[in-house]
Amino acid sequence: MRDRNALLFSILFCLVVGVVPILQLLSEMRHGDRLQAIDLPVDMLKTPVQRARAAGSSIEILIDSLRAYRSSGVLLGPGAYERVDELVARSLTLRNTIINVNCYTIDSSGGAALSIDSLCAVLRRLLDAADSGDTGSVVSLIDSTIGGAETTRHLCAGANRTIPGYIHALLRGIFRETLFNRQYLRAYEKELEDRSIFILAIRPVMQLVRYALLEDAGVKAMTGRNGWLFYRPGIEYLYRPSVYDPRSRSVDYNDKAINDDPVAIIADFRDQLAERNVELMVVIVPGKGSIYPDLLSKKVTPELRGEVSSTPAIINRLRNKNIEVVDLFGPMLEERGRDSLAGDSVYLARDTHWRSRGVLRAAATVAEAVRKRPWYNDEHMTVVWSVDTVEVVRTGDVGVMTGLPDVTLRRLRLSFDSEVTNSFPVWHNYLDSSGTVIRREPFRDDFRNGRIVILGDSFSRIYQTDEPRGAGWVAHLARELSEPLGAIISDGGASTLVREKLARKSGILKGKRLVLWEFVERDLRYGAFGWKKVDLP
User: Fold this and answer.
1) Same structural domain for residues 282 and 357?
2) How far apart are CA 138 and CA 81, in angstroms?
């Protein structure tokens, strides 16, 4: 009897194990989705060869185009600029081919990727030279670019488009990029879980049950006291060791080692700006958990405000490198002390970001630091600003990130209350000769007339480019300084992506005196794409 039950159990187990992937495959075919079951063999046997062919073809075309450009005799002016601009676009396409190893792996730190990054940087310099340089510098840059392309071709397996090259790419695809690649296997497993029709069916029920019984808001959010929600990476930043602690570099296989050096990258950026006679001022925004740690747990006392973060120590590192930093921790803590008087909080309860009290205090604090610059009182365009007051209803982004409002179980649906906050749009007033306002326009970026450029993340975006617009700390800094300015913003990407945006439009630095680089403190550990060196053309 026992053997018979064991046999029946084995048969049932085999049926389940066999039926589940078949049902998954049928579901993907029915909905026209990519068939994940064949991803592994495709990425082992087909993708490496396709990638090698594409990279090889792109490099050859790039090298041939550069040589044709060099021998054309038309090296300067509009026609040359358009030709080099097309080469820049081709180099970016080549970069995507190189770093996108397959559908689960991106490698931007390998030799080929670093080589193409250097190649792109030289091409951007060539673009500027073709527009306004001299023939000798253009020829020198063309030769450098051809040399960089040859180096990239050498580093790309299979890029020489020969049979041995393809075999090399194929073997690397099998042994380094798929079967024995931890990053690939984890990403494959995660997508397998995320796309499973069975998991998708039971996940809503489990989400609601876990939140109802355990107040578990999921992988992106943490529940606090009094209905507050916190962005989980922001809290993890607080309780994990500093990015300069050796423990952040020696981690187990479930964690990601922190090998980037934010201070060194910021110092390098400062030096690149200094070569262009532009100063750098860093503005680190404290996360909500640093100012309101006692609303995370009853065990955290209010006395720990401002003492739970490793950011002040990193600010000291920056200052020891002679990098100017505007410290917002003190002002935000002081502003929090006025909560009972103001009748609200400095940060939104169910959002990552600050209310307008934080916006105004940040703008005033940074403006005070800017006004101390020796050049501040030099002749510059003066703007008269005015301010309106509007009421804004915000749906907290942390509540949205939980995914719980999207879960509907029969008639049961969870929602988080929206928050109402006052906001203060800034207007540009145009005056006649008597000083009377004849018209006014909403704040907008003015890179042409401004002396200051802001690089920022979502703390620079909130109220500024979303509702009600022109009411963020960028606009209020312009109001405090009575002058125009412009901002380049990348949500979550102020560590690297925003500098890449600046590099692509580096011409806006002409005539500028100061770059204000704002980022939230958690980006020191969790900034998108880490802290990479970005060369300004």
Assistant:
1) yes
2) 11
- Which two tokens mark 213? 């019984």
pLDDT tens digits along 76-109: 887 888 888 888 888 888 888 888 888 888 887 7
Q: What share of the chain is helix, strand, coil (3-state, %, to 5)?
A: 55, 10, 35
CA-CA distance, 60 to 237, in Å (whole number)? 45
Closest CA to 296 of 214, 244, 235, 362: 235
CB of 463 closer than 8 Å to CB of 471: yes
Tokens representing 272? 């690149």
Q: What pTM was estimated for this model as a whole? A: 0.70
Sign, CA torsion 119/125/128/132: negative
91: in domain: yes
**Tens of pLDDT along 171-208?**
888 888 888 888 888 888 888 777 776 666 666 677 66
CA distance 400 to 386: 34
Q: Which of 175, 197, 216 is the last residue of a domain?
A: 175
Tell me, yes or no, whether 180 lies in a domain.
no
- Could you count the other beta carbons within 10 Å of the beta carbon of residue 133? 18
The CB density around residue 433, as the number of other CB atoms within 10 Å, is 5
**Does residue 534 sit within a domain?**
no
Distances in whole angstroms, Cα of residue 207 to Cα of each of 189, 197, 217, 251, 403: 20, 16, 8, 29, 9
